[in-house]
Amino acid sequence: xxxxxxxxxAQILGITxxxxxxxxxxYQYLVMLPSYISMSQTNPVxxxxxxxxxxxMSKGRLAPAALAGVLINAFLTVRYYISTPSSVVLLGSSAxxxxxxxxxxxxxxxxxxxxTAKVMLPINFELEHYHQGEGExxxxxxxxxxxxxxxxxxxRAAPAGAAAVIGAWLASW
Length: 173
What we know:
Layout: H1 5-40, H2 44-83, E1 88-91, E2 94-97, H3 98-110, H4 112-131, H5 139-153, H6 157-171
Antiparallel strand pairs: 1-2
C-alpha cells in the first residue's frame, strides 16, 4: 500500500533537507573554506569576514531548515510506530520495522545538534570575537581557527548524507 500524499510530502521534505544540509556542508568544506584559508595567509581579517558572512547565512537559513528536517523525520518515526508498528523492510536477510529505520534516519540527521553545540560553537565564538576585534585572538590564531572549523564542520556531512540515503531507500518501499 502506497503512503498517503501528506506522508509522501513528509518523506520528500525529510530526504531533501538532509541532502541539502549534507551538500551545503560539503560545499563549504570543498569550495568555500579552502579559498578563505588561502586568503588568510595574506589577509586574515578579510578571510574571517568572508567566513562570518557564510556563518551568518548558514545560521539563519541552513540551521532552521535542518531542525525542520529532524522534526519531519521524527514525525515519520512516530507515524510509522503508531500506525504500522509491524510494517517491515528487508535489510539483507533480516526484516526491520520501518519505524526503527526512520528512528535511525532521525538520529543520523540529529547528530549535527550536539556536534555543533559541543565542538563548533567554541570555534565560532573565537572567530566571531576576532571578526569584531574583541578578545585575545590574533592573526595566527584566526588562521588556525579557520582550518579547524573546516576540518570539524565536515564531520556533520556524513550522518546527514546517510539520513538522506536511508530516507530515500525507505520512501522507495
